[in-house]
């Protein structure tokens, strides 16, 4: 029945109570109306149901002629196991409930809306032959669920529903066919204009909230962008300061490089001057080298000439040595003759002849041995035995020439000394030789 109260459209609907299904444990609860005014709620806005093995908790948000009313949580569900579902009320309403129960608790629940949207299953699906009994109520497009009642402790022990009937004949006929017992309650008054107004206000409020959220999001985005821009400006300022500092450092480095370049140019000029001087010195050295080479060639030719002369001298010396050997032999014969003299007259002369003979033999042996030695051994032998030394700077040619010259001089000196000694002996022996001849 529709009436007009204070210019507002109002609709009075029949309200019935179905159930409960389940056990008798726990405590009883009933959410038929807001504040116990008897009018009843006009619809369901949302529901939060917790479940694991069984249905453990229930919390419903109701509509009271366009106004949201939050119910009380029943049972003790774990937050992680609670599922929340929002309904698009008044366009979407609950029109179907089903589930399983035994004599103690509700095992499972499932709901459907007029848009054929399934909500659940909450709890575990169980078989009817294991002590569980199934219950199911469908409004057949003749009514909608507007409230709940039941019993609960730690779990949901029992549940029942309040239904607003739109088409009584069709509704009760359907309940009769389903075998569901109904209990008529006080009528439900729907203030349609007020519901529309509140719905519009709610929609506007939602739009405003969305708009506010959008504006806040945009404002936050603008603030973030502004903050980013400020940070970017700070970075740019920092980069600018850094660039200025780098520019100053590079100018300083450039000045240092210019000074270094000037210093390098001076050093290069100095090195070029040194190179020029060295080139002049090198030219002078090359000229001196050529001069020395020419002198060396001259010295070499001179040494070759001297070597040829030395070879001639060697031949002459060999001839002289041969003559000395013959002289030695003659002296030996004389000494042998002197040995035939009487012993008392020739003791001193014999000793002198023996000494002379030894000296002659030693001179001859030294000369012959020197001919067999190389230049280094000759130098060493002359330094050791004869006391003749040579400067270190002399070349081999110069040493060979000096050796030959020294040997020649030494030979002549010793030969002269022997001749003097021999003359002295002859003078000393002349009286004996004359007396022998007279005898």
Automatic annotation (TrEMBL):
In its UniProt entry, what is this protein called? Jacalin-type lectin domain-containing protein
**Domain Jacalin-type lectin residues, every copy:** 15-165
- Keyword Nuclease among record annotations: no
The parts of the chain that form a coiled coil are 223-341
> SMART domains from the entry?
Jacalin
Q: Which domain of life is it from?
A: Eukaryota
InterPro entries linked: Jacalin-like_lectin_dom, Jacalin-like_lectin_dom_plant, Jacalin-like_lectin_dom_sf
Write down the species.
Oryza punctata (Red rice)
User: GO MF terms on file?
Assistant: carbohydrate binding
Give UniProt keywords alphabetically. Coiled coil, Lectin
Q: What Pfam families does this protein's entry cite?
A: Jacalin
């Amino acid at each position: 029945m529709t009436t007009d109260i204070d210019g507002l459209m109002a609709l009075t609907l029949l309200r019935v109570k179905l159930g409960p299904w389940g056990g008798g444990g726990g405590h009883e609860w009933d959410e038929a109306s807001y504040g116990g005014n008897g009018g009843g709620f006009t619809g369901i806005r949302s529901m939060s149901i917790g479940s694991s093995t069984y249905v453990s908790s229930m919390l419903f948000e109701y509509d009271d002629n366009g106004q949201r009313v939050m119910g009380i949580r029943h049972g003790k569900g774990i937050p992680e196991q609670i599922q929340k579902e929002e309904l698009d009320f008044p366009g979407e309403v609950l029109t179907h409930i089903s589930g399983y129960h035994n004599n103690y608790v509700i095992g499972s629940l499932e709901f459907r809306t007029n848009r054929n949207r399934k909500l659940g299953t909450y709890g575990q699906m169980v078989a009817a032959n294991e002590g569980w009994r199934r219950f199911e109520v469908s409004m057949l497009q003749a009514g909608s669920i507007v409230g709940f009642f039941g019993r609960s402790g730690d779990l949901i022990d029992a549940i029942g529903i309040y239904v607003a009937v739109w088409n009584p004949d069709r509704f009760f006929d359907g309940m009769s066919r389903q075998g569901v017992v109904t209990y008529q309650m006080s009528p439900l008054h729907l203030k349609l204009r007020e519901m529309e107004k509140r719905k519009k206000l709610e929609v506007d409020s939602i739009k405003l909230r969305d708009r506010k959220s959008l504006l806040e999001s945009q404002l936050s985005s603008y603030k973030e962008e502004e903050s980013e821009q400020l940070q970017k400006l700070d970075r740019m300022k920092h980069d600018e300061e850094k660039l200025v500092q780098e520019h100053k450092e590079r100018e300083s480095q450039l000045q240092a490089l210019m000074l270094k370049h000037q210093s390098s140019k001076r050093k290069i000029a100095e090195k070029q001057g040194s190179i020029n001087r060295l080139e002049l010195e090198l030219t002078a050295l090359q000229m001196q080298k050529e001069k020395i080479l020419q002198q060396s060639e001259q010295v070499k030719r001179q040494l070759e000439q001297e070597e040829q002369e030395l070879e001639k001298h060697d031949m002459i010396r060999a001839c002289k040595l041969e003559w000395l050997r013959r002289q030695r032999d003659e002296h030996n014969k004389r000494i042998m003759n002197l040995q035939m003299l009487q012993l008392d007259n020739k003791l001193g002369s014999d000793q002198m002849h023996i000494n002379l003979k030894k000296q002659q033999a030693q001179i001859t042996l030294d000369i012959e041995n020197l001919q067999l030695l190389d230049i280094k051994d000759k130098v060493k032998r002359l330094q050791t035995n004869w006391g003749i030394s040579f400067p270190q700077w002399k070349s081999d040619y110069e040493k060979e020439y000096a050796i030959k010259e020294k040997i020649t001089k030494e030979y002549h000196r010793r030969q002269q000394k022997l001749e003097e000694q021999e003359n002295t002996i002859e003078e000393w022996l002349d009286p004996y030789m004359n007396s022998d001849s007279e005898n």
